[in-house]
Amino acid sequence: MLRKNWFTTSIFFQRKTQSLKDQRRSRRRRLSIFEHLERRELLTTVSWIGGSGDWNVGANWSNGVGPAAADDAVIDVPGSAVTITHSSGTHTVASITMAETVRLTGGTLIVSNLVAGSGVLAIAGGTLQDANVGLSTPIQATSGTINHVTINGNLDVLEGNAYLSIRNGLTLNGTATLSFADRLYFEGTQTLGGNGTVAFTDNATYGSLIVNQNNMTLTIGAGITVRGGSTSTNF
To answer: What is the pTM of this model?
Structure first.
């Protein structure tokens, strides 16, 4: 009788243990599915659906609030030429694909990865940070700041008295063109790297590359060419 009870108890214990293992495996599978769904939900595309307007207005975006740090922002309004203005606040997105004009007039736009497309990016008072810009059109800058940016394309600073502040280095793999009294301000010790060209137009009498703090150094990488126009240029 004792042997029978021990045998019965042993079978019950094994079945209970196996049941607990099955429950744990089932729970892990459910968690894995939920985590996968969560990742799919977080890595989303958020599209601009408004006309010309401000980045901060949630109704202009397909999700009703605007893109967040893990979102890919798509700015393309077929059949229309619209301008999106980033006027204030700090916003972070994973990437931007654009076929329209985006104007940075204030605040900070942080892009973790690529800014690409055929649109026009105009920097006129705001800050672009961490972006890898690969637009097919030149960046147009009249004022403002680029902070730790890579430009795989062209940069035009062509307003005659424009300036663009640069922080935490600039990698230039295209041509930055400056005219008359346009300036690139390097804030503190920095490196201008890449394989690009800084070109001053023929009328760039007062065009300058400026390190705007005393006892600081601007290191110009071996792949960078600085080319003056037919008049004198300041370095």
So the answer is: 0.80
Nearest Cα to Cα of residue 113 among 94, 127, 139: 94
C-alpha distance from residue 185 to each of 147, 157, 170, 223 (Å) = 12, 12, 11, 20
Query: Is residue 160 within 8 Å of residue 179, measured between CB atoms?
Result: yes
H helix or E strand, kind and range, residue 31: helix 2-42
Count other Cβ atoms within 10 Å, centred on residue 231.
14
Rounded-to-integer distance, Cα 87 and Cα 105, Å: 5
Can you give the pLDDT of all 235 residues of the chain as single tens digits? 444 454 444 444 455 455 555 666 555 555 454 444 444 445 699 999 999 999 999 999 999 999 999 999 999 999 999 999 999 999 999 999 999 999 999 999 999 999 999 999 999 999 999 999 999 999 999 999 999 999 999 999 988 789 899 999 999 999 999 988 889 999 999 999 999 999 998 776 677 888 977 888 999 999 999 988 654 444 4
